[in-house]
Design goal:
single chain, alpha/beta, 6-stranded mixed beta sheet, two-stranded antiparallel sheet
């Protein structure tokens, strides 16, 4: 029996964009309805060209409130630079409309990226999940990803997904409020990871090499510092987009732990 194609769309970006473009709610509703309709046609066309056909179902993923996200407990500065920015005036009404009119999914303390990551990496005999997002972070998830900005459809295997995850651990993301290894850009991170199989051991060794940079960052930003390993683990845990098995109903997210690493090591 052929699988149903599940289009799991990160709706936050599209709702925000429509709310910014429009001044009255009626226009915003028309805008977002057309956006999702056009997006589905675009994705199905890309899938057809890739030889992936079947019945489609669409699910819109929504984020929890930023202050409720689990990463704030791991690193208080996570996305804190966005807290004072005003949301578009129509954002609340438009989100409520989308929830009422479309099939949506959200989970306590998770961002839409995490919802996509869990769905996209889950084994299934019933669904072929297509994650739909413009966010580079979804490259850290093994599965099928459509980027509507670049118009690309990519299937990522687990080793490649791990590579991108470890890259994020090293580079950090200043727009999201976590530094990674300070002064480690994409070229340096690639040099670390391109030599053989990417691993947490390689990431941690590079943190040890750059310990002076970490200590300087800690001093400059007046943040609590327990150990170098703890600092590195914190970066990894906020960088990690959750995969299947890393969120439990009733218990919430399972913080990432590399093989051979224990809580005592922190």
């Amino acid at each position: 029996m052929p699988k149903t194609i599940l289009l799991a769309i990160d709706a936050d970006y599209y709702i925000f964009a429509a709310a910014c473009r429009c001044e009255i709610i009626e226009d915003a509703i028309e805008d977002i309805t057309a956006t999702f309709s056009d997006l589905q046609i675009e994705i199905i066309d890309a899938l057809d060209q890739a030889g992936i056909t079947g019945t489609t179902k669409t699910l819109l993923a929504l984020s929890c409130r930023r202050e409720d996200g689990f990463r704030r407990d791991v690193l208080p500065s996570y996305k804190a630079n966005r807290d004072d920015k005003e949301k578009p005036a129509l954002m609340g009404e438009l989100v409520a409309y989308v929830k009422a009119k479309f099939d949506c999914i959200e989970a306590p303390r998770l961002e839409a990226d995490d919802v996509l990551g869990i769905l996209g990496s889950a084994p299934s005999d019933k669904y072929e999940v297509v994650m739909v997002s413009i966010d580079k972070d979804l490259k850290t998830i093994p599965g099928l990803l459509y980027n509507s900005q670049k118009k690309t459809l990519t299937r990522t295997d687990e080793e490649t997904a791990n590579y991108h995850f470890f890259m994020q651990c090293l580079m950090g993301d200043s727009t999201d409020g976590y530094p990674g290894l300070p002064r480690c850009g994409p070229k340096r991170a690639a040099l670390v990871l391109d030599d053989g199989t990417p691993s947490w051991g390689k990431v941690l060794r590079e943190y040890r090499e750059g310990e002076a940079q970490v200590l300087q960052y800690v001093e400059d930003h007046d943040i609590e510092y327990k150990s170098l390993r703890n600092f590195a683990m914190t970066q990894a845990r906020v960088a990690r987009i959750l995969r299947f098995g890393e969120w439990r109903i009733g218990a919430g997210p399972v913080l990432w732990m590399p093989p051979g690493f224990t809580e005592e090591d922190e």
